[in-house]
């Protein structure tokens, strides 16, 4: 739904509910950043958000160049280069030559990076289990579906703003 094709949603919807929603999203963002939703135990807070997202993307999509990684994450290539450097330095990511073009560099999750990512994922899964221990399975599924939908809407909005759409 594009805003230029509809009435102002705050006039149509329940402004009290929208105020509560924006407040809860702001609180969630702050608390998520404060804790980094880092999981439990010794792994807690041991991997920053940028590193986690980069490692996760390489794990899910496989080896790729900086430009492809940046495009798939919706961020600038220079940002990826800056964020991946410490991951290479610590051995979590390795740079290899492209199999078809030896001049091109490909980023790949190292075995150490794979192990570290799984350790962090397990810790974060434990945290999610603890935070939602008294939720019914249907509530977890609904929350996940709605949060995924919300994040998708944010991504689409950001992509539209990047193109200059309103």
Considering the chains and any ligands shown, give keywords for the structure.
166 residues; mainly alpha; 7 helices; globular
Mean pLDDT: 84
Rg from C-alpha positions?
A: 19 Å
Q: Which structural category do the helix and sheet elements fall into?
A: mainly alpha
Residue share in helix: 55-70%
Could you give the count of β-strands? Answer: 2
Q: In sequence order, what are the helices and strands, one letter per element?
A: HHHHHEEHH
Strand order, main sheet: write it out.
Answer: 1-2
Amino- and carboxy-terminal Cα gap: 12 Å
The major pleated sheet works out as: 2 strands, antiparallel
Report the portion of residues in β strands.
Answer: 5-15%
Give the overall form.
globular
Number of helices: 7
Spans of at least 5 consecutive residues whose pLDDT stays below 50 are 1-7
Walk me through the structure:
This protein has 166 residues and is mainly alpha-helical. Helices cover 64% and strands 6% of the residues. It has seven helices and two strands, in the order αααααββαα. Strands 1-2 form a two-stranded antiparallel ribbon. β1 (93-97) and β2 form a beta hairpin. α4 packs across α5 (77-89). The longest helix has 27 residues, at 137-163. It is globular.
Quick recap of the structure?
It contains seven helices and two strands. With 166 residues, it is mainly alpha-helical.
């Amino acid at each position: 739904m594009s805003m230029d094709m509809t009435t102002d949603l705050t006039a149509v919807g329940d402004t009290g509910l929208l105020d509560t929603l924006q407040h809860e999203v702001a609180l969630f963002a702050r608390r998520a950043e404060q804790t980094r939703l880092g999981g439990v135990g010794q792994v807690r807070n041991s991997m920053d958000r940028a590193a986690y997202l980069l490692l996760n993307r390489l794990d899910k999509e496989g080896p790729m160049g900086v430009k492809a990684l940046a495009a798939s994450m919706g961020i600038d290539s220079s940002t990826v280069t800056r964020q991946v450097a410490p991951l290479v330095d610590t051995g979590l990511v390795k740079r290899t030559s492209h199999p078809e073009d030896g001049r091109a560099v490909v980023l790949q999750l190292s075995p150490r990076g794979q192990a570290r990512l799984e350790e962090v994922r397990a810790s974060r899964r434990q945290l999610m289990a603890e935070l939602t221990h008294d939720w019914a399975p249907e509530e977890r599924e609904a929350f996940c579906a709605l949060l995924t939908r919300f994040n998708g809407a944010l991504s689409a909005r950001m992509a539209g703003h990047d193109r200059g759409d309103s």
